Amino acid sequence: MLFHKDRHAKLEVYNDINSNLVNLFKCVKYHPNAIKDELENLLYSRETFSFFKDMHKNPNLTDIQRAAMFFYLIRTSFASKVVNFGSKHKDATNTDRLAEIRERLKAVVIENKDFAALIKQYDRPHTLFYCDPPYYGTERYYDHGGAPFTKEMHQKLAEILRNIKGRVILSYNDDGFIRELYKGFNIEEISRQNNLSPTAGREAYRELIIRNYS
Ligand SMILES: C[S@@+](CC[C@H](N)C(=O)[O-])C[C@H]1O[C@@H](n2cnc3c(N)ncnc32)[C@H](O)[C@@H]1O
To answer: How many domains does the chain have?
Structure first.
């Protein structure tokens, strides 16, 4: 969402509990050329993928090494989930877009907090939160870099968002439990192509856009 929108507020904050993602953004923001150097001579191979999959968790890496490995893993994994190697024809080490991404991140604050702490810290009457939580029932497919996202956490998020001063837009999968959690909110149904299914492109995937304002 961030990269599809131009800057729209004086203060923009990006948050994720996954420290690898946050470290990648930080390094792209401050050291894009160092990331480029790390990636330049890598092969697009299953062997490198498997090696980096273990290695990127090594605490002795520099932030730049970790960021470059994570970037590689995102680019070479099936559905960018950093779980299985996906040999799609694309240049995994192509860093052409880094300059553009760096430009977008220039004035963005990058946080690495649990959603509850983050929302509490930034909630004001003029705040607009865009929340993209793990979809209900598919939590295991995300590398949270932390504790798994439980049913109770979905409930906690809903409870917090019911009581914020600011506005919120949430995206979720269309599910009875989620509809029940956000009863009374403005719920819009949309459908998009499911690019991640084996019959990709043929199936429609139903999602909800949920807002606390009309
Ligand atoms: C549907 S993904 C959205 C990712 C991101 N918005 C994107 O488009 O690439 C859900 C994200 O929630 C993050 N997450 C999981 N538990 C969290 C928590 N307790 N607080 C904040 N973020 C969390 C995961 O790390 C994951 O990146």
So the answer is: 2
Residue 37 lies in a domain: yes
pTM, two decimal places? 0.87
Domain carrying residue 191: 113-214
Nearest to 133, CA basis, from 144, 124, 122: 144
Ligand 1, atom 23: closest residue by C-alpha? 17
Inside any domain, residue 3? no
Asked whether 89 and 30 are in contact (CB, 8 A), the reply is: no
From the CA of 157, how far away is ligand 1's center (Å)? Answer: 12
Residue range 47-62, pLDDT digits in tens: 999 999 999 989 999 9
Which of 19, 129, 142 maximizes ligand 1 atoms within 8 Å of its Cβ, making it the mutation to test the pocket? 142
> CATH no. for residue 211?
3.40.50.150
| Whether residues 135 and 209 fall in one domain | yes
Which residues, 6+ apart, have CB-to-CB distance to 141 below 8 Å?
81, 83, 134
pLDDT in tens, 7-18: 889 999 999 998
139 shares its domain with 92: no
Torsions phi, psi of 131, nearest 5? -110, 130
Closest-CA residue, ligand 1 atom 7, reads 132
Which positions ≥6 away from 151 have C-beta within 8 Å?
136, 177
Ordered alpha helix ranges (H), the chain: 19-30, 32-39, 46-55, 63-76, 98-105, 115-122, 151-162, 176-181
Asked if residue 123 and residue 85 are part of one domain, the reply reads no
